[in-house]
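Q: What would this chain look like folded?
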Amino acid sequence: MGPKPVRPPIGRVEVVMPAHDEERHIEHALHALQAAARALAERRPSVAVGITVVLDHCTDGSADIAARIAAADGRFTVLHQIFRNAGASRAAGVAAALGRTRPGLEQTSLESVWLASTDADSRVPENWLWRQLELADAGWDVVLGSVEPDPRGMDPEVLRTWRIRHPAEERHPHVYGANLGVRASAYRLAGGFPEIPSSEDRALVGGLRRRGFAVVATDTTRVMTSGRTSARAPRGFGAYLRTLGAEAVAESAAAAPG
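A: My prediction, written as C-alpha cells:
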C-alpha cells in the first residue's frame, strides 16, 4: 500500500536530458520524449510540459539535431555547457527548467512541479510521463523506473547476464538517471543532483530517502537505453555493462571442460 495522497496535483512537468556527443542516439531520444509528451497531453491536457536538453561539451552533430527539433517544438529548450560532468549537467538543466517555470518559486508551489530525468542515448515509452504522474497522485515523491539495454549490437551473453541480475519486477532496488522522476519540492530539499561525474542519480535518491520522502520503484515505465560498453561516465552504465561482459567471459571459461 502506498502513502496517502496529501500532495497537490501536478500542474507542470519538466524533463531534463543531458547529452555528450550522442549524435547516434539523440534524435530517437527526443522523438520518444515528444511521443510521451503527446500521450500525457491526451490524458491531462491541463499539465504543461517543458523539456530541457543540456548539451555538455558536444563536438559532434548532437547540437544540430537538438536545435532542429527544438525549432519546431516550443516545449524544448537547449542549453550549451562545458561541464564534462553528468551531475553538473543534470543540475544545470533542473535549475534552468525551474527558473523558466516561475522565478522564485515558493516551496509549496514546487510541490505541484514534477521533474523527470532521462538520457540522450535512451528512448522512453509513451506512458513514461503520465504513469509517473499517476504515482505522484498516489502520494509518491520519487519514482524509480527501470531500464533495458538495447539488444541491437549487444553481446548476447552480456544481455543474458543483465536480464538474470535485473528481472522485470516492481519494487526493484535499482536507480537509473535515465528513468527517474521526483517532485520538485523534494528535489530542492534534498539538495538536488550533486555535481559529480557519475552516480549523481544514486546520490540524489540517497538524500531523498534520508529525508524520509516516499520512494517507489516500478517496471511499468521501462526505458530502452544503449547497450554500449564504452562508458560516457566513470562507473556509469556503460562501465557496468563492460564489467558484466568480463564476468560473463570468466564464468564461461570456468564452466568450460578443462
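The chain has one domain: 12-148+169-190+200-225.
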